[in-house]
User: What shape does this take?
Amino acid sequence: MERRNLIELIESIQRRQCEEQTVEVKAATQGAPKVYDTLSSFSNQSDGGVIVFGLDENSSFAAVGVYDPQALQKAVAEQAKEIEPSLSPVFEVVEYQSVVIVGCYVAGLPMGQRPAYRRTAGITKGSYVRVGDQDLHMGAPELYEIEAFKNGARDDLDVSPASSIDMLSDDFVAKFVLDAKAERPHLSHRSADEVLSLSGAVRNGAPTLAGMLALSDYPQQAYPNLCVTAVAVAGNELGQDERGNRFLDNKRFEGTIGQMVEDALAFVRRNTRTRTVVVDGKREDVPEYPENAVREVIANSLMHRDYGPYSNGTPTRLMLFSNRLEVWNPGGIYGGQSVEDLGYVNVQTRNPTLVSILEIQGVAENRHSGIPVIRDEMRRAGLRPPVFRDVRGTFTAQLFNEPEEMGHEGVAVTAGGVSLEEILAFCSVPRSRREVAEHFGIGVSYMGSRYLNPLVANGKLAMTIPEKPKSKNQRFVATRGTR
Assistant: This one.
């Protein structure tokens, strides 16, 4: 942390009058506050966080200073040693408005080292997760997701006691075996039973979860709630219309993943508008949302969701509002990666067997191309970029039917009027994510995923440490020719 960055952060807090996902404020005028919960929650998220001591939230985040900066750093460092694994926060001391402010940077831990928890409280009671400006106890599903990752658990290979080999469709199996032999040379001379076993569709003579979801006549006989629930509502929020109706349309889709994707896509077509345009003298129907983007969002939610014991009773949810489409599923981004990494950094796959089977069937690709396709399709349609949210072990993808605001010469701008040209100008010298975000008054995560990462991908920005994209010392600088 640099002195300039800490002062800019203080000014941003005072300007915005709030804490956030990566910022906690403590007055610390009378002594060192207990920050075990925040040390844990910041460590348990990829972006880490900063605790700012010396601002008073109850007095509009006024700068009140700390009681003793030296003693405060020592006390907080001692608290950090009580966290398992032991933490080593980085401190910065600055003078601001005639008082001393202390910043404490807490780095996020890799998934394999989580959860960070207070030893005396134990894992279940001492592990916290950050939600907005709150530190909340980790729930059993969140702890399971971490342990499953560390232990290499493969929920898509689990076999339900309710499953049996005769639940697989003869037609689906026959086609799958032919496709697998054509796609995978090492399977070309294998028997059908061997193909099913080697592909992970069958284990010890019984269908796995992946096999049931891809090849069963009716997977829901073993997994009743592994389905898609879809609703269309009038307005931008759930509620009732003037006639007391909650939903304009309300459906439940079952069957294989391939069938559910197609049924959900048909639901979107049925409940959204289509406009007609003339291109080169020919009339073309343009859907409200690009169909390829919708397909990718739905398929991704079913491929990459959590199928573990705390989640396999929960359906995937599709919601159509007046201004957006949302798809929600249990299971955050696998491996603890940040939302900012989606589409730019290859992340591990939660359900590799299921994804491999769906790839053979032609239902999905396994090339980490889904997120880029969604972004590209929305951009080509002139619509707002998609928004992805990872909150407490759940994932939501949002597509908006509102057009991307355009500034002069077609340069995209934010709702606050910040153009890409302004960002490039500000980055004529190397800047950190936080510096750019705070300069324009935009959240750090949104600034990274919406602007910085795309500009890097387009070659307009360069990272100073490209081999370590998430380094806390990472800076972004405009490339030659864009300055």
Summary: The first strand starts at residue 23 and ends at 26.
